[in-house]
Every structure is written in C-alpha cells, then in structure tokens.
Amino acid sequence: MLKLDKLSKTYATGDTALSQVSFEVPAGQVVGLIGPSGAGKSTLIRCINRLVEPTEGTITLGDTDLARLQGRALRRARRRIGMIFQEYALVERLTVMENVLSGRLGYVPAWRSFLRRYSPEDVSRALALLEQVGLSQHFNKRADALSGGQRQRVGIARALEQDPELLLVDEPTASLDPKTSRQIMRLIGTACRERNLPAIINIHDVMLAQQFTDRIIGLQAGKVVYDGPPTGLTDAVLTRIYGDEDWNQMRGEEATDEAPRTPEVDLAEGI
After folding, report:
1. Transmembrane segments in this chain: where (predicted)?
2. Of 37, 78, 88, 241, which is the most exposed, with the fewest CB atoms less than 10 Å away?
3. Model-level pTM?
4. Going from the N-terminus, what domains does the chain have, and what CATH number goes with each?
C-alpha cells in the first residue's frame, strides 16, 4: 500500500505545487490522477519517487517512509517503484530486449550492467513480458525503429521487469491515437490486476480515466478537490476541478475524436 500524509511542495520561488495532499492507494487499485495543467499532477508523481524533493509530509510504501530516505537507501527503494514515462525514456540505439532488461539495472552489479550481462531468470522474465505486451517478435529491433504505441509497450514491460511494488505512470497516452491509447490503458490495468499492483496514472483524458481506472483523484492548484469513483465525475465535480465548461459539448467532441480513423501503424497488433 502507498500512503501520502500531508504531502506538500513549495519551490524556492515561493510557488506552491502541492498543499497537504493525503490519500492511500491499496494493493491492486489503479488511480487516475486528473486536473488542469499546473495543478500539480506531475509534481505529485515525481515527489513519490523523489525525482522532486517534497517540502513536507510523508510518503509511505509498505513500512518505508520514502520522504526520509537518502543515498543508497533511496536507490534501493526506487527499485520498488516502476515508472512509465510520457516520452518513453528508452535508449534509442539499444534493442527492445536490452531496454526491457534495463529494468533490472538496480539489482545487478555495475560491471554486469555495463557488459549487459543478465541472469537467465531476468531474460526469461523479459521475454514473457514482451509476449504479454505483444512485442515478442520485435525483441531484437532497435527502439528507434518502433512506433509510439510500441515504444510505450516497451516502457510498460521495462517497468514490470523491475518487479515493482508500485507503478507510477506519467501521461502514458498523450502522444497516441485514441485506439492505441485505450489499448495501452487496458494493458496497464491488466498488469496491475494480475500482480495486485497499486498504480497512479497522471492522465489528461478524463474519458479514458473514467473507463480504465478504479478511482479518480482530482487536483486543483495543488489540492485534492475530488477523491472517489469514476462514476462520481459529475458536471459539478468537473467544474470544481477544471473550471467552467460546457461538459456536454466536450463529451460530444471527445466522442467525435474517437470515431474510426486510419490508426497509427503498430506491427505488433496492426495498430
């Protein structure tokens, strides 16, 4: 379980990105984190894995307060947190398999990682994950030869290769077409259910969040203004999160955006 208690972040400029954020994410639950640009969504994700230093509060994963760790203890704790990035963060010149195996870098000695020597168990796990994400036939292809949807699948497999206790996902569908976006969200949800893995997904697409997450947390100006089921996102709640908008019209526009069209080519599934 992940537990945040009064987590806050104030930058040196005096700008407050997060203010007294508190919530828990139990094992196996997928949380959609929504809110307008500048609401603090990415800051929250990055505070949890300590890419951004929180100003105050606690971040507890299991029995460990991540906010208090430093040095080697922090590096060990980060092995327990899988991260899926918006821009994929792959090493373009390496193969798909090598990118997935990089999820084990925190577990192997430096000399083995430099020589790219991994155990048979690590390789078997990576092959199984590539099968799960539909890329087993592309294991030897360079990352820079993949489509956007394929790259995000590699990022999912790499994060799961860590055998994490928590999954953090930052805008996984921002650069993808609607069909591929749904497939990526479905893949993440399936992986979390199979592994009883808690996850927080920072996502800008409210309809995707409603369809593929178990719970929604809405941020506005660094504060939690909604925490509940996807079905609870009424027009009033959405206005509280995003401000005034014609939500019926927005839903119509989003439905039009998802009308059939020529999709991005994805060799794994014909996407």
Report:
1. none
2. 37
3. 0.86
4. 1-80+197-257 (3.40.50.300)
